[in-house]
# Entry
Amino acid sequence: MTAYASHEILAATPLGELRIRSFCRPEEIRTLSFDRQFGTHAHYRSLFTKRESLERKAEQPDTSVVLAIADAVHIVGFGVLAYPDPEERWAELRPNLMMEVNAIEVNRRWRSQKVAKALVQMMMVHPLIEAKIAYFVGYSWTWDLDGNRMSAQEYRQMMIRLFEPFGFTEYTTNDPNVCLKPENIFMARIGADVSAEARQAFKWLRFGQSP
Amino acid sequence: MKYPKEIVLKDCTEVLIRPLAEADEPALRRFYSEIPEEDRWYMRLDVMDPAVIRGWVRDQQEVISIIALVAGEIVAHARLHTHKYGCYHHQGRLRIIVAPAYRQKRLGSWMLLDLIHLAMEKGLREIRADLVVGVEQPAIESACKLDFFKKAVLEDFVIDPRGQRHDLLIMTKQLHKDWGDF
# Structure
């Protein structure tokens, strides 16, 4: 398995400085504490509720686990760029052409500090990014609407504003889970080195067709 | 909404969806001229009247239109009718016309989904579709799948070209604040 070098930026926020670090290794994650807010709330449950889940993700090939770290040891946000599960539609483009923004989350206290933007920025600092189709699927039922005091439509717009500056575009798909609710969203960023054939195959895949 | 957008139909036809532009007026007139007369019968306006098409093309403030194109030809037209003022200002009314050759391929559903997004972006609270029972059955089924509910049935309200009466079904979909219902 290729080991990638970590990159790090410092984000100054009114709440203090954060380290945003890509390609965090499992043993490194193990030394950090995981904010208790990443748990189950009244109308929302965090995508990762245990630090161990992030450690397991970090073990997967080419995966970048990006962490927002406060006070040198405390995880207050995370992003995961990884290959989709093999049984998912988006794993069909071979070889490993698509990578998913598997998770992006900032704990409630640190929101509105542009932490998510820094997490996306660091997820995109991936040596393979221009050879891949990075994608993101937003399901409204996973969104913390209460915590953000937003409607699903406002949250959707926020996700578009978050990902668009990094080259993501909203695409239409007949993926049943995406189609389940009009506020759900599918966005993708096609790397500069992705071939015309692969782009075409991606279009067909979005609609569950094969040419 | 970001346009133009590409979709692929059930039969693998590639379609482009984008807003209606002024330059589309002749193509839109051509599109409606090829819609069967029986289908045109159920429209509220006479689409063979050039002034009607011109109105939709030129004024997109209250009637927002998107079109679907295959090889540069319009194959579907979807409209969101809105009101700037008054008791209906919170509401939009939808109308989707698909060319016969492109029906039963989910194109109407894609257009419907886009109109829902446009309505959401405009901040509407409710959208409405008036559909003729027994005539526009696929559209009724498509609307049901997208959480439209039956609001009212106006019995024997419309008359078909042969003089037979049909029920008019008013379907609405709420676009309220806490839309995620999980």
